[in-house]
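hey can u check if this looks right to u? its 339 residues, i copy pasted from the old doc so theres a chance i mangled smth
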Amino acid sequence: MRHITFLILLLAPVTLAEPAAAPPVCEACAAEPSPACALTADLLSALDAKQKAKAQMAWDSPDRVHWNFLPMAFRKGLPLAEMTPEQQRKVWTLLGVMLSPDALAQARMTLDREAKLAVLEKSPTRDPGRYFITVFGDPAAKVPWGFSFEGHHLSLNFSFDKGQPTSVTPMFFGANPATVGDEVKAAAPRATLYQDEDTRLLAFYAALTPEQQAKAQMAAKVAQAASGGGGASPKLPEKPVGLCAADMTPAQRAAFLALIRVQADKAQAGFAKGVMKEVEKEDAAKQFFGWTGEPKAGEVHMCLIQTGVVCVFVDAQAGHGPPKANHLHTLWRRVGKDF
């Protein structure tokens, strides 16, 4: 019954403000602060003393840069399970101004999948109420502060200074199973978001020549290390691995940049646009595409994109099928600028 209750709350219609386009990061002195500042302050004011003690930590807490998408017995912050429906709505409204509409739907879908895992695995630890909001510092002050929203298969981390977002990474989304039953045929809202990303990745790899595909090959452990949680910085190989973007045709590099843009566009429009400008201006010789696994839908595979600006990880792994690899992860990070 508890899972059903949270699923109803999760899927209930919520009136969200249109995601605000933030000014470029360099315009930290802009007159109007991000709406996230007021929304976070409003959320904190709606909590009682016990809830707030769990939800708010110091900006310099070591927990701020400790993130993880794995199922865990303990996490920082206040779980949805200990919040009222109105408090939960405030959390989703806050996320709605920091994420694109598709990314917000993807986050909701992740919690929906957690409820399905509870049934598939007959496990009480799979619980859509175990997603935690944590605020670091004071959103009402013009000093650095941030917040995270995290649970199994989801880790969203945002930092602000002088009222403007300065970081929206690490940003991790996952789902197992990514689709269930006849959802794709029924065109369920957002049901194919993860498959769309994987389809784009597979199409890019298929468009490479055999020689390029051979250059792209990397060890699975390299991508796995880069995609792991827990660290303030990604564990990237000292020397980038894979196919260099300088060795791609113009059409291939455009498709390569589009793979990055899919992940960056999960953030609010203004921030994503600023990041992509940096990536597009960067020398192609500093950008690499690594691949391992089977280049087929439903089979296990993963990619690691490494540039001097961002790194992107996408994988399909064994999970609750069919197909076999109906378990998808996506992650993007700013190199040297997370948190």
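The two ends are 37 Å apart (CA to CA).
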